[in-house]
Amino acid sequence: MPSADSLRVSIAADLDIVTARREGRDLAVRMGCSPTDSTLIATAISEIARNIMNHAGRGEIAISAKSIDGRHAIEVVATDEGPGIPDIERAMQDGFSTGPGLGLGLPGAGRLMDHFEVRSEVGVGTTVVMRKWCP
Q: 22 lies in a domain?
């Protein structure tokens, strides 16, 4: 069973995006992140969750507190079993989109967080790992 500093949110509907965003912000606040950083984390979660909905239809977001090299971070891992991203480098460019959006989700979320990585395999799915350091 997940602790108070680790949770998973299934993403399959708009309400799930709101839930994931709220849970991420709440954990960031409990960890002592600033109000600004808490909002940045919530916004990045929204962007990635929206991408899951738009491109894969469903997926999951895991949010947890991590200690890495003596520093504390909130870590968000978003996974889906969607079509995958054939060209991650291109997908990280502002304005590139294969869906209905403006192509700002992935690169925007990347700018909001301190660590951002995308792993994807066409026909298998995508995993996004992002972290924000907290005091």
A: yes
